Please model this.
Amino acid sequence: MSGTTTGAEAAAPATVTATRLRRGTLPLLAAVWVATRVVMLILLARDGSDPLGVGGVAREVYELYFGWYGVLLDGAFPPADPLWQYPPAAGPVILAPGLVPGASYFQAFVALALVADAAVALLLVRAGRRSGCSLQGALLWVCGLPLLLHLPLARYDVQVTAFAVASLLALPGVTRRIGHRRARSTRSCSPRAWSAIAGACAAIGALIKVWPALVLLGTPPGRTTRTAWVSAAATAAGLLLLLAALFAHPFGFLSGQSGRGVQIESLGGTALTLARLAGGPGEMRYRYGAVEFVGPYVPLVATGCLVLTVLALAALVGWRIRAARYGQWTTATAYDAALCAVLLFTVTSRVISPQYLIWLLGLAAVCLTSRATSQRRVAVLVAAAAAVSALAYPVLYAEVMAGTWTGFLVMLVRNGLLVAAAVLSWNGLWSATTRPGETDQIVTKATIHE
Model:
């Protein structure tokens, strides 16, 4: 009939409108990125001034990192420094600022952090502009990272997060059912090539700061998983051999982790702070680059954290096996699983440094690029936890170190938000992938590229 409008004709105006909105959003995102990063640079220049608290954010770069830079130039990882607790690929990251001409080490380090920050934003924008995706992820990263004030510019966690984000977004677009049609990835490279790239990026990130190894947990069963995991293993082995040939003591970081206690900012540290406020024993000391608890109950709390971490790992492995058996993989499953895994390992850790929120913001942003994600409320909680983390460090860190009620309440709120995010994340991931039912973007075993 002439008066009948087909589904394709009805969808066309909406598609055009969405495209125009996206085009209008990009200049705004760019302007917000520039404005917020200028503010972050100003805060970095005023590090240690009121109202930024105890300061010391920038000191880690021009004292600690620069000291390691000198040792690495001599062809060795810091063998006797208990503060060196990082895998060997962190060495090239520490050395990289020395390659920037005409700048001091500190200036070059900050510049490279900004480059990595911009790269993450561009990757998220590119992903968000795909059909059926969203720019909300880019918005979260651009607006969420400044919630941590100037801290991201004085740590190399942005660089690590860039590898994790690149790994997830490189995973090939699996075939998916939408109504009676099937949509395939329009990328020029083959799915196998993109899977290999994803594995390589995850491996490089893991050899800088371990946690990016978790981002491959949710890769779809079949060829994608095999290719990504084999690529990750091969990349890690090759890079380890290269670094072992170039530097002495490449595995010295392993001994640096064995003596770690319970950091005051961790979940266990919050419990110990409450016990101390109630008159219990224990004191705080600076060890291994952080303020930690020492006292009669600290080993018990540390052991409890390790047990919880093992249980979290077992739960994630169980989820993977069950989800693979049901065969329900959405286009967001790999993203959601990565965020859930890192959240669970973060809240059960003996150490929860404020820069860990950089990781979580990046992974939450990746989740929001997909309209099928189960982690929207989690992303809100992560952003809120980032804002409170800035209060904990550096603004009110003197209160946190002193173990006052103010410091305790700040940490209670921050860690409470992270625990709530972890619970919601696990519930969302489990519900989305292990319960039979149809969704708009379900990916079954039959439709995964084999």
The chain is about 60% helix and 5% strand. Residues 7-45 form the longest helix (39 residues). Residues 1-18, 174-186, 437-450 have pLDDT under 50 and may be disordered. The first strand starts at residue 176 and ends at 178.
